[in-house]
Amino acid sequence: MKIDVSSVYQTWINSLSSENTIKKYKSSATLFCSMVFQKEPETIEQYDLFHLRFSDVLNKFVTPLKQAGVKDTTIKGHLIAVRSYIKMINREKIFRDIDYTNLLNYVLTDKSLKTNDVKHHEAISKEELEELKKFLREKRYKNDINNNFGKKYALLVDFMYKTGIRVNASFHIKWIDFQFVVGNNSERYARLDVIDKGQKLNTKYLRREYYDMLRNLFYRDNDNDNDFVFDGLSQNALREYFKEFSQKINHHLTPHSLRAGAATSLYYQTKDILMVKDFLDHENIATTEKYIHSQKDPSSTGTAILTADYDYSDIDKLSKEQLLMLIHSRPEMESSIYMTARQSKLITR
Questions:
Q1: Residue 289 and residue 277: Cα distance in Å, rounded?
Q2: CB 129 within 8 A of CB 161
Q3: Higher confidence at residue 340 or residue 40?
Q4: For 142, phi and psi rounded to 5 degrees?
Q5: CB 28 within 8 A of CB 78
Q6: Contact of 161 with 261, CB cutoff 8 Å
Q7: Which of the 8 DSSP states describes residue 206?
Q8: What H or E segment, with its residue span, contains residue 204?
Q9: CA gyration radius for the chain?
Q10: Minimal CA–CA distance to 46: which of 92, 11, 106?
């Protein structure tokens, strides 16, 4: 049976990984085909692709969008979606005599588009995380009969920070997704298998004590293991609470800031980019590097450190109380020293 372009379009839609991707890619393909061909994407013909030139893409699509104030990264995203559709047309072999290599690599690609015109999500610091949890615990909620919403939202953001799991995936976690395992150190862990962005399986290991804390707060007597862990809380409400908190501290934060903040903190504690990559479940380090935000303190910059003439023997002059005060004043330093002590077996528990 002969396949037409509308069937290929539907196959392309069905091949996309998530509802969010489908929505974005359909919108991009529709916009492009409307501006360049004056057609819907499922009605384009061989003639359209055969005669498509880079000048058409630039003059009919890229330039008008730029003039309308659309950011380069958004335009580039549109072109990525269109190339995805064209790849499916090539795969289904419904149009002959089309130079798909040229079409994909040169015609539908504009290397002049910037990829860094949007700042990545702001990272939340450990101090801000504690302020946020306090803000959520003290906030008043509607229909909060047992006064538990504040505690639940505070533990939710703590969970998202410590696991790096995105907000949408977090709200789809069920109790059945946890299984108990024993680590090489004989400690018990709750293994969490969750489907995150791109339909990828993401595995996290929570200490048993942390799982018990979740269970004690969120599990209801009439629950079963197929119920959602964070049932009763709202994604939309959480985003609104982030907006309120951002205004309060004058720092723009979103739920994704938890992931960026955790990645930044983990890297500065361990200096292990591969560990951070695994934590974020990224496929390549280049993506991970975008999540690690530079330290804002001038004294922490490379040049400041290399040009300083420190006399580290001065540390020996500090009293035990002074050292402890300094260590506990910075969460990153606490974690770094604790981890080093464990690795050196000075702390065994």
A1: 9
A2: yes
A3: 40
A4: -75, 145
A5: yes
A6: yes
A7: E
A8: strand 200-207
A9: 26
A10: 92
How many Cα atoms occupy the beta-carbon half-sphere of 133 within 13 Å? 17
pLDDT band of residue 303 (cuts 50, 70, 90) is very low
Q: What strands, in cross-sheet order, belong to the sheet with 178-182?
A: 178-182, 188-196, 200-207
**Tokens, residue 42:** 């499922």
Within 13 Å of residue 14, how many CA atoms lie on the same side as its CB?
Answer: 6
Range list of H helices, the chain: 5-15, 19-36, 46-50, 54-57, 63-67, 72-92, 100-102, 126-138, 149-163, 167-170, 208-218, 235-249, 256-270, 273-280, 285-291, 302-307, 320-328, 331-343
Extract the tokens encoding 316: 């020996």
- Residue with structure tokens 């505690």? 151
- Buried b / exposed e over 191-217, threshold 16 CB at 10 Å, is ebebebeeeeebebebeeebbeebeee
102-161 pLDDT, tens digit per residue, is 999 899 988 888 755 445 568 898 899 999 999 999 999 988 877 889 999 999 999 999
Virtual CA dihedral for 331, 334, 339, 344, nearest 10 degrees?
A: 170
Q: Nearest 5 degrees, angle CA 203-CA 17-CA 84?
A: 130
Rounded to two decimals, the pTM is 0.57
C-alpha closest to that of 264 among 105, 125, 160, 62: 125
Higher-confidence residue of 240 and 314: namely 240
